[in-house]
Amino acid sequence: GFILVYFDHTIINNFFINVIKNVGGNTGDMGNAVFLAAMLELPTMALFEKYKNKINIKNTIIISAIFFTLKHTLTYFATNMVMIYLAQATQMLAYALFIPASVYYVDKLFDAKDAVKGQALVTTSMTVSGVLASFLGGILLDSMGVYETLFLGLVLSAVGTIVMIVTVENVNKKGA
User: Fold this and answer.
1) Which ranges of 1-145 would DSSP assign to H, the alpha helix?
2) In the predicted model, is pLDDT for residue 172 greater than 80?
3) Does some domain include residue 173?
4) What CATH number does residue 22 fall under?
């Protein structure tokens, strides 16, 4: 599920200038949008450690998947930079929530002796998705255009989110 969600995330990030130009923006606007997302990620990541034992990690993973797809939806429908900035703001509950939550999830899901394998699986899913998105994203953009590529990515992201909703296990009961 996360491979599908992360596919569109990687296409948007790798080819962000194409998305920005498509709504009338320029490289300065792109820099502002990337800066906004990065700054909003920091508080979420910093606060996660403080609250990780007080939250349901299954729900946290699902919320992050939903916010990834929300970001992809807002990016697809964006017609100006304000909408892009709004999409970038969702990063604080998408990527910034998923990264620490996935570490905690794997730690709770796997036995201590298999924790490295679990973390490797998360990293592998991101890598596989990243490679596919980097390769296919350029081909799709060249052959179909920005809107069509973003739409395909949005559909894959939505399917991935549904898969994650159905398959993410409740780990708070396991050793918590």
Assistant:
1) 2-14, 16-22, 27-51, 57-77, 81-89, 95-109, 115-144
2) no
3) no
4) 1.20.1250.20
Q: Which residues of 121-147 are buried (b: 16+ CB within 10 A; e: fewer)?
A: bbeebbeebbeebeebbeebbeeeebe
pLDDT at 176: 42
- Which residue from 86, 91, 66, 62 is spatially nearest to 74, judged by alpha carbons? 86
Range of the domain at 23: 2-167
* Residue in this structure with the two tokens 């993973």, named with its chain if needed: 61
> Using only C-alpha atoms, what is the Rg of the chain?
16
Count: domains in the chain: 1
Q: Phi first, then psi: give them for residue 53, nearest 5 degrees.
A: -85, -5
Whole-angstrom Cα distance, residue 139 to residue 128? Answer: 17
